[in-house]
Amino acid sequence: MANNLFLTNSTAATTFIVVLFSLLLAGKSQTFSTSLPRTALRLGKQKLTHLHFFFHDVVGGPNATAIRVAAASITNTSTTGFGAVIMMDNLLTVGPEPNSTRVGRAQGMYASADLNDMSFMMVQNYVFDEERYNGSTLSILGRNPIMSPVRELPVVGGSGVFRFARGYTEARTYFLNATNGDAVVEYNVYVIHY
């Protein structure tokens, strides 16, 4: 009996030492974070950029660019369409006409997220293909109370020219087709970036 107790304690002690040693080695061999000088990321002076464009949300017809992909059990009976999730790939243009000069696409989704008021939770990337900003993106995440004359949404990031972006965007409905839900929204985006 004494020999079995010794083996059990010895095995437990050996296991404990092996686990502890492994943790110590793992902690020294990997690094979670490192401080970098600003020059490592080529961060220069910050710039403030103002962008102005129109967002074309086409939800009806054969050329829809925004399509409902999910709904809750109450979506169709809710006065706000609560629970509807819409995926989009909407045109961004210089002017309000769809044949105006294209500057990019708004890709992402929006969802009806308010039981009492028409308000969307917006998750979108503005993907620019205009020459100066070609390949650059801005990421937007926020609440859009669509019946308000002016809505403010935060810019939470970006890529390319807009790397390390932060700022906000103001949205104003320019046109709304009450029959099918198509809309043209004017955006003014103010973004600080490097």
Adjacency order of strands in the biggest sheet: 1-3-4-5-6-7-8-9
Helical residue percent band = 10-25%
| Overall pLDDT | 89
Q: Which runs of at least 5 residues are low in confidence (pLDDT < 50)? A: none
How is this structure best described in words?
This protein has 194 residues and is mostly beta strands. The chain is built from 1 helix and 9 strands; from the N terminus they run H-E-E-E-E-E-E-E-E-E.
Write a compact overview of the structure shown.
This protein is mainly β and 194 residues long.
Primary descriptors:
194 residues, mainly beta, 8-stranded antiparallel beta barrel, extended
Produce the secondary structure layout.
Layout: H1 2-29, E1 47-57, E2 66-70, E3 85-93, E4 102-112, E5 120-128, E6 137-144, E7 151-159, E8 166-176, E9 183-193
Antiparallel strand pairs: 1-3, 1-9, 2-3, 3-4, 4-5, 5-6, 6-7, 7-8, 8-9
